[in-house]
Amino acid sequence: MEIVMAIVIGILFMTATYLMLSKSLLRIIVGTGLLSHGAHLLILTMGGLKRGAAPLLGEQGPYTDPLPQALILTAIVISFGVTAFFLVLAYRAYKELGTDNIEKMRGNRGNE
Amino acid sequence: MSLLHLAIIAPLLWAILVPLFYKSFRQIHTGWFVLPLPIILFIYFFSFISTTRHQAIVMETLNWIPSMGINFTAKVDGLGLLFALLITGIGALVILYSIYYLSKTKEKLNTFYTYLLLFMGAMLGVVLSDNLIVMYAFWELTSFSSFLLIGYWYHREKSRYGAQKSMIITVFGGLAMLGGIVLLHLMTGSFSITEIISQSQDIVSHSLFIPALLCVLLGAFTKSAQFPFHIWLPDAMEAPTPVSAYLHSATMVKAGIYLVARLTPVFAVDGLWVWLVAGFGIVTLFWGSFSAVKQTDLKSILAFSTVSQLGLIMSLLGVGAAALHFPGVKDNLYIVATTAAVFHLINHATFKGSLFMVAGIVDHETGTRDIRKLGGLMHFMPITFTIAIIGTFSMAGLPPFNGFLSKEMFFTGMLHVLELDLFNIQSVAILFPIIAWIASVFTFIYSMMLVFKTFTGKHQPEKLDKKPHEAPIGMLISPTILASLVIIIFFFPNSLLSENIISPALAAIFPSLLNTGTEFVTHIGIWHGPTPELFMTLGVIALGILLYLTFPKWRKVYKLFPDKLALNRLYDGIIDRSQSGSYRLTTSYMTGSIRSYLVYIFTFFIIILATSLVVKDAFKLDTVHVSSIGIYELLLALFVVIGAISTVFAKTRLASILLLGAVGYTVSLFYVLFRAPDLALTQLVIETVSVALFLVCFYHLPKLRKEDSRVRFKLTNALISVGVGVMVTLIALSAHSNKFFKSISQYYIENTYTEAAGKNMVNVILVDFRGFDTLFEITVLAIASLGIYGMIRLRLTRRDEE
Asked: Which residues, at least 6 apart from B554, have a Cβ–Cβ distance to it below 8 Å?
C-alpha cells in the first residue's frame, strides 16, 4: 500500500506544481490545496500505514504511530488558514485590479 | 585584559564618548577632548623603549577563540613599538592641528573625531597584534575608517568617488591577505606570527608557500599604494588635510610596509619575495616621482610623492630581505638597506607630515591648492615658508635635513644590489641604482616645485579667493614640531633613534640573524667621504636644478602617456562594467514574476534531490515491509488521482472548486482507513468550510479563462511538474524503505495516560506534549484572520470614500 500511496502522492504533487505554475490565481489556489493534501499523505505514509489500531488507548494495541497524525492535524489547520487568506487576497486583488492573471497584475514595468 | 590591551582599544572606547562630549560642550572644540588620549598613549608606549632596546618582548594574551587558535595576543617588540609611537605621536600632532583646521561651528566634529579615533585604535591593533586573524580584523577596520574619513565631506562627489575607490582597492587586497593568512595556517597550523616565523624553514618547500606569499603581498601592495594599485591614494586626497597627513602619509599607508617587514622572516627565505618586494618598490618609486612632477595641485603632488616614497621604503625592505641569506650581523651588506627603510619610514613621517600641514595651511589661508594660482606667498607667510623649505629639502635629500641621511643610505642599499649573487638578480641588478637615481632626480624636481611655485615668484592676488596671511599660531605648532624633528634627527640620528628605535626594529625583522648576546649596531653617519653615494646626490642636485629650470621645455614628455592607457581608466572601466554586468545578470533572472521564482525553486528542488539520491545512493525500494492493499484503498487512490488530474483540465471555476473538494473528501476517507480518526474528522470539517468559502467567493472570483496556450509554456510547466512528482514519489519510497532511527513515538504511546491523563494520543500530543506548537498554530490562524478581516474592511472604507 505504501508504494501505491507514494505514486498517488507523486501525482498530487505533480498536478499541484502544474497548477501553481499557471497564471490564473484561482488555479494557483487550487494548486496549493492539492499540494497540502500531498504533503499530508506523504507524512502519513512515511510513518508507515496500517501498523496497528487507531491511537486511542481504549483500542487493542499495538497502535499506529500517533506522531505523524499530530503533525498532520496541525498542518491541515494551517493550510486551511493559508487557503482562506489566499482566497480573500485573490478576491480582493481581482476586485481592485480587474484581472486574475498574475502577469497582468504586475502592471506596466514603468510604474514600478 | 592587561593594560596593553586597554591601551590598544582605548581609542575605540574614547570614540564612544566623543559624540556625548560634542553634544554637551558645543562651545569647546571637540579636538581638545580627544587630544589628551594620543598624548597619554604616546607616553605609555614611550616607556616600552627601555624594554625593547634590550630586545625584550612584551606579550599579553587575551583568550578570544582558543579552540581555533584565535586569541587577542598583544605583542610589543621593536617594530611594533616604532609604529605605535608613530601612530600616537603623529596622531597627537594631527589632532592638535585639526583643532585649528576644522571649524567648530561649520563641521560635524563628532563624526570626524569618532572616525579618527576608530582609525587610531585599529591601526594600533594592526601593529601590536601577534595573531594574524586579529591583525586582519584591525586591518580591515583601518580600511573602513579610511573610507569614512575620505568621504567625510560626503556631499562632494569626488569625496564619495575617492572613498569608494580606496575601499574597493584596499579591501580587495585585504581579502587576498586573509587568503594568505589561511594558507599560512594550513601550512603551520597556527595564526601566531611568532609561531609561524619559528616554522619558516619548514614551510618554504610547501606547495602552498608561493600562493600564500603572493596573497600576502597583494594585501601589502594595495594598502601601501604600490604600483599599479597606487591609484586610490591621489583620490584619497579629498579627505580633510589632517586626515591626509595622518592616514594617507604617515600611518595607514605604511601598514603594508609594516606587514612586509613583519613577515620578512617568514617569506624572505624564497628569492621571489626579494624580487617582488624590491621590484614593485622600485617601479612605484619611479612612477610616483615621475607622476608627481606633472601635478598642479599641492596635495596631488604630495600624494604621488607619498606613493613614490612608499615605493622607496618597500624596495629597501626587498633588498634588505636578502640579508637573511647571509649569516650573522657583522659584514652583512644588506642590513643597511633595512636600516635605511626603517630610518626613512620615520623621516618620511616627519617631513611629509609637516608638508601636508603646510599644504593645509596654504589651502586654508588662500582658498586654493593650485600651484598655477599660487606664488609669492613667502612675504605673507614666512613661518609656513620656512617649514615648507625644511620639509621639501629633506624630501629632496639635501643636508642638513634627515632626508639626506636616509637618501644616502638608500643609495648604499641600492648599490649593494650589484653585489647580490642570489636568485639570478645580476642580470637586472644594474637597473636598481639607475632607477633609484632617476627617481631621485624627479623627487628633487617636484620638491622644488612644491616650495618655490607656492612661495616665490609672482603673487597673483586676483586668482585667490582670500587675502593670504600667516596661519594662526595653533595651526603652526604641529608642523613646527615636525620640522624641528627633521633637523634634530639630522644632527643626532644615533643618540635619538639608532639604539632606541631602529636596532630593536631590526631585531624584530631579522630574529634569526641574532645569536645570543649579539645585537644590531646601527650607526648613521653624516659624512662618509667621497663615496659613490655622495656623487650620486651631487648628480641629483645638478640635474634636478637643470630640469627644474627647463621644465616648460620637456613638459611634453607627459603627453606621451595618453589618458586612455591610464590605470584610472582601467579602474573606472572595471567598476562600470561590473556594475552594469551585475545589473544585467540580476535583472535577467529576477524578473519580478512569481512564476519564474517558482520555476527556480522547483527546478532546484528536482536537481538537488536527484543529485543527492544518486550521489548518496539513497534510493532503495523495500517491497517486503509493506502493508496490504485493500480494494477500498485502491478505489480511493484512483479517485484522488482522477480528481487531481481533472483539476488541471477543468474548464470552469465551479468544476475546479468541486474537484478540489472531492480530492479533499477522498483524502479524509484515506485517514479513516489509515486509522487516523482525528484527522478524518478535522479534514471533513475543514474541507466543508473550505468549499463553502470557495463558493461564497464564487461570484466574486474571476472566471477561469483559457490558459495561455503556447506549447512551450505548457511543456515547461509539464516537464517541471512531472519532475517534481517523480522526485516526491522516489523520496516517499526511499523514506519508507530506509529506516535509520527508531521511532520516538513509543514515548508518547506509553506516557499519554500517565503524564497527561488522556486517552487520545494525537490530542494529547497536540495540547499537552507539543502545546506550544499548537499555541503558535493558533497564532498563525489569528494573524491570517486579522489579515482577512483587514482586507475586507479596507475595501469597505475605500468604497465609503468613493
From this structure: B547
